[in-house]
Specification:
The protein is about 30% helix and about 35% strand. With about 375 residues, the chain is an alpha+beta fold. Among the domains are: about 80 residues, Beta Barrel (conserved putative lor/sdh protein from methanococcus maripaludis s2 fold), CATH 2.40.420; about 60 residues, Beta Barrel (OB fold (Dihydrolipoamide Acetyltransferase, E2P)), CATH 2.40.50.100; about 90 residues. Strands 3-12-15-14-13-16 form a six-stranded antiparallel barrel. Strands 2-17-22-21 form a four-stranded antiparallel β-sheet, with no helix packed on it. Strands 4-11-9-6 form a four-stranded antiparallel β-sheet, with no helix packed on it. β21 and β22 form a beta hairpin. α2 runs antiparallel to α4 and α3 packs across α4. The radius of gyration is 42 Å and the shape is elongated. It starts with a helix and ends with a strand.
């Protein structure tokens, strides 16, 4: 009887212990359920970007005026030389404007030369004296007649000089407009882009023609704004061309302007130089580049809002939350670099507010 009672007590104790463990486990599971946990990730060891082969020496050309395109001797891929005309607008009206300006200049020049000759022989002064004598001299107000005549002649000479200068300017402007109707290449190179591909159409100053020198090739990569902080000059890069060729290079230039692509991505242009580009690639060929990350292997990235006072992060370690002190780096697009204090794979508590009511171990 006594042994039976002891047995029953033991069973009751075991049931209570099991219930207590279940309750504790349930409480811990509920606690975990209240916390959102994410895993710290490492910064990419390589930055991937798309790009294409371009020339360091290139010219993007546009007309300064609108007009009808009547001359287009080359197409994309053709070779051109410095000062060679690559496109031309209808010049009929411009040539007539220049001819009219030249006629006006000739007439104004004749008048100017005759006035200068009259001044040298005294005819100009004589005509002004006659004009003065046939009018009321009371207006002289005591001035000498000779001085008045000389002043009148000087004003006539000045007016003739101004008219001649203006006619020269009109000729220069008409000639300049005629020159602007012809588009010439400033470099030796290859035409890689033409907005207009046929004559007979009206174009505007927004119509673009591009000439590139194929002897100075670079690979222009478009690095996403989230990755640009990890790129620096001199970093090694591996380019996989669309042709299948692999090319090694280094970062030569990082452009400061952020640009938006058609798909909405925001990127920075980065030039990759390589001696292997010449002879193995061609202008316009596309590819993918992997740029060595400058951040170092120990840097991890976590959401910025999980960093408290820029120095502390709650992590979930050995079944409980732990507050750790960290060293932070750059912040970019909602993520913060953690240089020291965390390692890849650490479980970050995404919503630290859920644990502030409890007491946890602090390191």
């Amino acid at each position: 009887m006594k042994s039976r009672i002891i047995f029953i007590l033991l069973v009751v104790i075991l049931i209570l212990i099991g219930f207590g463990m279940k309750l504790a486990l349930s409480k811990r599971n509920n606690q975990q359920a209240q916390m959102e946990i994410i895993t710290a990730k490492t910064a990419k060891s390589e930055i991937q970007a798309e790009g294409s082969v371009e020339s360091e020496i290139q010219a993007k050309l546009t007309f300064q005026t609108s007009g009808k395109l009547v001359y287009l001797p080359f197409k994309e891929g053709d070779t051109v030389y410095k000062n060679q005309e690559i496109a031309g607008l209808d010049q009929y009206a411009l040539q007539k404007d220049l001819a009219e300006a030249l006629n006006n200049y000739r007439s104004t020049r004749d008048t100017f030369d005759q006035t200068q000759a009259n001044n040298s022989t005294g005819v100009l002064q004589g005509s002004q004296q006659y004009t003065l004598e046939t009018t009321n001299k009371v207006g002289l107000s005591g001035q000498g007649e000779t001085n008045v005549i000389n002043d009148m002649a000087k004003r006539i000479l000045d007016e003739n000089q101004a008219n001649l200068d203006n006619s020269v300017i009109e000729v220069q402007l008409a000639n300049y407009a005629l020159q602007l109707s012809s588009l010439t290449s400033p470099i030796n190179g290859v035409i890689t882009h033409e907005d207009a591909t046929t004559t007979g159409i009206n174009i505007t100053p927004s119509t673009t023609f591009t000439v590139q020198d194929p002897n100075h090739l670079i690979f222009k990569a478009q690095v996403l704004e989230n990755d640009i902080d990890y790129v620096k000059l001199g970093q090694k890069a591996k380019i996989k061309m669309s042709s299948g060729r692999n090319i090694l290079g280094t970062v030569k230039k990082i452009y400061p302007e952020k640009i938006s692509l058609a798909n909405g991505d925001k990127v920075y242009n980065v030039d990759i130089q390589s001696n292997q580009l010449a002879g193995k690639t061609k202008l316009g060929e596309t590819g993918t580049v992997l740029i060595e990350n400058n951040s170092g292997k120990n840097i991890v990235l976590i959401p910025t809002w999980t960093v408290l006072a820029k120095s502390y992060v709650w992590i979930y370690e050995k079944g409980k939350p732990v507050l750790k002190k960290v060293t932070t780096g750059k912040e970019h697009e909602g993520f913060t670099q953690i240089i020291n204090g965390l390692k890849p794979g650490d479980k970050i508590i995404k919503n630290p507010k859920s644990i502030v009511i409890n007491k946890y171990q602090m390191l």
